[in-house]
Structures are given as structure tokens and as C-alpha cells.
Amino acid sequence: MNKTLLIILLISQLSYANDNIEISILTCSVGQEVYSVFGHTAIRVIDKENKTDQVYNFGMFDFNTPNFEYKYLKGKLKYHRGVQETVNFLKIYTYEKRLVHEQKLDLTADEKSEFLNRLKLLNQPENRFYFYSFLDKNCSTETRDLLKHIGVSFENQELNKSNRDLINSYLQEMPWLKFGINLVLGKSLDRNSNRNQSMFLPDYLQKEIGAAKLNGKNLIQSEKILNSIESNSNSNIQQIFSPLLIFSLLAVLFLFWFPKPAKIIASFSFGITGIFILALWLFSGHEEVKSNLNILWCNPLYLIYTPFLAKNKTNKMLSIILVASLIISIVVWLFKVQIFDISILPIFAILGIFNLQELRKIQKK
After folding, report:
1. What is the pLDDT of residues 283-322, one digit of tens each?
2. Residues 41/118, Cβ–Cβ less than 8 Å
3. Are the C-beta atoms of residues 247 and 340 closer than 8 Å to each other?
4. What is the DSSP letter of 302?
5. Distance (Å, rounded) from C-alpha 132 to C-alpha 79?
6. What is the pLDDT of residues 191-224, one digit of tens each?
7. Prediction pTM value
8. pLDDT, position 77
9. Three-state secondary-structure class, residue 28
């Protein structure tokens, strides 16, 4: 081995062999932006000898990336790891009114050395970028896997909740976002989660770290909140004008009055959305959006039906297929093959009214 490299490694080992190094896991509370509604996890490293206090961040991305939206949907958006001063990190989260909870790890010198060597290896330029996965590779799972690397074992016990349940628990105050997310997530999210898998969410990682042991001792030495924020009591307009309310009002209106322009708009909207769901299923690199049975009721065939509506015509075969797909959707939901968002109920009513009216036209001819 090169003598210079050996000396550097020995110095590195010695620097970890004392209490000058402190390693903590930071868990940040949820925010108001789409990318922050599930919270965030980061790693804090204090080196008292070198007088550094830094945060290693695993969930960084650049909004200015060319074709940002396309790459995100395709599963080809590169996230990266980065380092910033803790004081700056805290300023950002305090400004966003998000608490930062610190869990200081109780590690031996060897465990600190192994942890930091792995952390610095991951932060090398050739390893810094990675393809994001909501369930399997994000800021929280990266931290979990680092802890596993030094010997921390986490329980694999099955939960009585699915990953969809875990996700939805964060979205109760954002019903439109909840509706959109459930619209694009496939049936794989409805399998029961387990304690290891649940750590894709920062709060669940924090909970599991708090209960974890390493070599027979508690992993956590101490815990504290690093910042203070003012409470936010603003009312959420999303909850007032929720999709459940809006779609319910439309269902009642269309029961008595469903004019041709409204039918054309509805048919076109369902068809386009169905095409979008199908495209995600076929071409996205995100496994969570595949096998999405929302495509049954939000059928791309509505797009083909739209020109018939515009010309005051009907198509018996298309109508029968669309009615059948709606019935199958209800069966899929009832038997919990895939769980749909509750806001889909009035949409089912709208589609039922739409298709029954079209079938009646066919019968009259």
C-alpha cells in the first residue's frame, strides 16, 4: 500500500478514536411544498478538533435541471448528496417553520470510523449522484442503509398498514395532493408494509432509530430539538374546497343537468388522464406507478369516445366496454385489489350517469 495513503488512513483512524467526533441523525418536520410534505432526514457530523459542524444531505436536486419534470416522471432525475454548514441548514428549516430533531448516536471509535469512511465514500464525486426512488432510495433509506453498514439491525415485522396508508397519513390537510398522488400510485402500494420498509419516511426512521440497539446497547445517546418555530394557524383552503366536495357537487348537478359541452369536457379529461396513467405505467422508472388500476375507470378509451359526443353520435361497443370497466373498478376497490382515493366515489357517480345516458341513447335508436 502507498505509504502516504497508509499514513492518511492511520491519522484518520486516530482522529475518530476519541470524543472529538459526534454523529447525529437529523429529522426535519414536514413542510408545505410538494417535495417536503413527508419530512427530511440528514446526518450531522461535528469535528471538535478541526472545529467543523456540517450536515450531510442525501436528498438534494436542482430545479434548473433540463427537462426536470420529464426526468422526474421517467425516474431519470439525478439526486445528489451534498454537505453544508449546520448553521445554514438550520436557518433554512427555521425559515420554513420546520422543526429539526437531533438524535446523537452512541458509537465506539471503530463504529464512528466505519460510518464516516462510508459517508465520505458516498460523497465522492463519482458516487455523489443517484437515481431517486420514493420507496427504496431517498434521504431516509440512505441513512438507514448507512446504519446497517455499521451493524445496526432493524426489525422486519409486518405492519397492519400499507405504504399507501403511511403516505396518506401525511396528506390529510392536502386533499388535492392526496387525490393526485393516489391517482398515480399503483396497486403495489397496497401490500402491508413492514418496519424496515416504513423507514422510507423520515418520521418512521426516527422512531426505529430510537428503538434500535448496536452491540447490545442503545443506538441513541441523547435527543433534542435544534430550533424553535412559531405555530402556523392559517386555514387550509384545500380542505374547504376538497376534491370530494367539488366532485360531489358536480355529480348532483350532472344527475339533473348534464349538457353536451360538459360531457365532451369530461370525456376528454378522463381520456387524457388515462393516457397519462398508461404512459407512467409503461415508461416510468418508478415502480410505484406501475400496475395502476385507476386506469380502469379513468379509461383512455374516453378519448376515442369524445369525437362521437361532438357529433351527437354513440358507439355501442365503446359504451359497453366503458360501463364494464367502471363495474370492474368498483369490484377492484371492494375486494381491496387496489385502494382508490375516497374522492373517486363521486367520480364513479359521474361516470355512471354519463355512461347510462349514452346507453339509453343507443337503446332509443
Report:
1. 988 899 999 999 999 999 999 999 999 998 888 999 999 9
2. no
3. no
4. H
5. 6
6. 999 999 999 999 999 999 999 999 999 999 999 9
7. 0.88
8. 74
9. strand
The mean-pLDDT minimum among 14-18, 19-23, 211-215, 331-335 falls in: 14-18
Residue pair 329/297 in contact by the 8 Å Cβ criterion: yes
Going 147 to 100 to 12 to 126, the CA torsion angle's sign is positive
Q: What cell does 49 get?
A: 478538533
Q: Which residues contact 244 (CB under 8 A, 6 or more apart)?
A: 175, 342, 343, 345, 346
Which residue is associated with the grid cell 373517486? 344
Task: Please state, as a whole number, how many other Cβ atoms lie within 10 Å of the Cβ of residue 298.
Answer: 26
Cα end-to-end distance, the chain, whole Å:
88
Task: Identify which of 343, 345, 299, 357 has the alpha carbon closest to the alpha carbon of residue 324.
Answer: 299
Domain ranges of the chain: 20-157+195-225, 242-360
- d(C-alpha 289, C-alpha 278), whole Å: 9
**Structural contact between residues 43 and 118, judged by C-beta atoms closer than 8 angstroms:** no
Cα 214 from chain centroid? 29
pLDDT at 19: 74
- Cα 169 to its chain centre, rounded Å, is 12
Q: How confident is the model at residue 14 (pLDDT cuts 50, 70, 90)?
A: very low
| Closest CA relative to residue 23, chosen from 48, 54, 45, 41 | 45
Q: Is the pLDDT of residue 89 over 50?
A: yes
Residue 168 to residue 341: CA distance in whole angstroms: 9
State whether CATH 3.90.1720 applies to domain 20-157+195-225.
Answer: yes
In angstroms, the CA 289 to CA 293 distance is 10
Q: How many other β-carbons are positioned within 10 Å of the β-carbon of residue 140? A: 26
Contact 117, 25 (CB under 8 A): no
